[in-house]
Amino acid sequence: MSELPKQWQSVLPHLGHTLPEDVAPPSSGEGVSVNLPMELVRQSLSQREFWDIPEPVLEQYRRYRPTPLWRADAFARAVGARVPIYVKYEGGNVSGSHKFNTALAQAYYYRKAGVTELVTGTGAGQWGTALAAACAWFGLRCTVFMVAGSLRRKPYRGTLMRLLGATLHESPSPLTEVGRAVSADRPGNSLSVAIGEAVAYAAERDGCAFAIGSGETYSILHQSVVGTEALDQLGALDAKVDAVVGCVGAGSNFGGIALPPFAAAVREGRPAPLLLAAESSTTPKLTRGVYAYDRTDSAGRGPMEAMYTVGSEFAIPDSHSAGLRYHGAAKLLSAMRFHGQIAATAVGQADALSAAHTFVRTEGVLPAPESGHALAAAARLAVDGVRDRDADHRTTEGVLVCVSGHGLLDLGAYDQLLAGELHDEIPDEQLIRLATANLGRPR
To answer: Which CATH code fits 59-93+219-434?
Structure first.
């Protein structure tokens, strides 16, 4: 049995390059100052590697961590894998996903800073649920704007958030200027709109702050408990892996599982494992997007960040993988991608849910659709390898993959899979080019 890590681990000292600075948003609108606790600012900028986890956060972590890791031999046999596949499972907490790791940390720091209410946007609902639970445990009010298409498919996600005390709104909503301004071609599929509504809503209320669960460097830091535990657990099994796979929306899950093994390799002076990011083919920022300065939300009121993006105004096709339907990747992961430290592959939802179907039949755990993308990518890698940027990647020792959440509230998607009704809508290349044409490139 591994021990609960007492520290978060930052990869920043091991990158070998610095992250591009954020830039001010266009002057066409009035900017909003996000009320961010200074400790989270320091965690995003400092070159310190290890950060002590506050005891109140550790106390909550002990309720569900360490999380399980096992060698998924039955799944590996079913897909014809050449090498072992090891699974790290993050779905065993009240939120059903890895998002709880940073939600608890953020609720702690915001409360310490005097905030009384947190507001957020959520896609598939895992982050909204995680923040609702964290706010309940640390005595904060919580308001969530959830992507409408996802909420209608998964109404019980909303029920769970309300059980935890959160106030829930469909996005786009009539409550904010951002929601009212949404055009008819984006009726409720955009996470950036939900985030934009949350930013605008929080800015208008005293004691209220916006909280984000995935793309920020501090949220990726909090997720390092996943990879740190996994390294300890692999060591206890005397297991070796030369590839690490995670799904990517903005990137906290992938960063959590992949960056501690990367940092360990750099520190020890040995080659880093292949870090393979599995994204949705409906939102292919890492495989078909551009590296540019873009808005993190449709309101455009926060700073512009350097990211791989398909464009914040891009009309993202609908799919069951709402947690992956974000237009850009985290600036930390995007910089690593730009410098060749991360590989990426795009997976369609039919392939993702098929891999998840195989996993539940062989390993007894039903993954979230988002996690199905990681399993599909891990299976490809363990069987035939993957191609990325005209380079072939293969593994010779083993694959570590993070199943970031459970799919027990996604049964509607699996019902469509069984009925043969799933299909993938691949974005048109010209539309991506148009959505990114006017974005400035990092220097």
So the answer is: 3.40.50.1100
Quick: pLDDT tens for 335-346.
Answer: 999 999 999 999
Q: pLDDT per residue over 214-254, tens digit each?
A: 889 999 999 999 999 999 999 999 999 999 999 999 999 99
Q: Give me the half-sphere count of Cα atoms (radius 13 Å) on the Cβ side of residue 131.
A: 31
In angstroms, rounded to a whole number, what is the distance separating the alpha carbons of residues 382 and 128? 33
C-beta separation of 146 from 236 below 8 A: no
Paired tokens of 96 = 């059903």
Contact in structure between 394 and 252 (CB atoms under 8 Å) = no
Give the start-to-end residue ranges of the domains of the chain.
Answer: 59-93+219-434
Exposed (0-12), middle (13-18) or buried (19+): which is 62, by Cβ within 10 Å?
A: exposed
Does the global pTM surpass 0.90? Answer: yes
31 CB-side CA count, 13 A: 13
* DSSP codes, 51-106: EEPPHHHHHHHTTT-SPPEEE-HHHHHHHT-SS-EEEEE---STTSBTTHHHHHHH
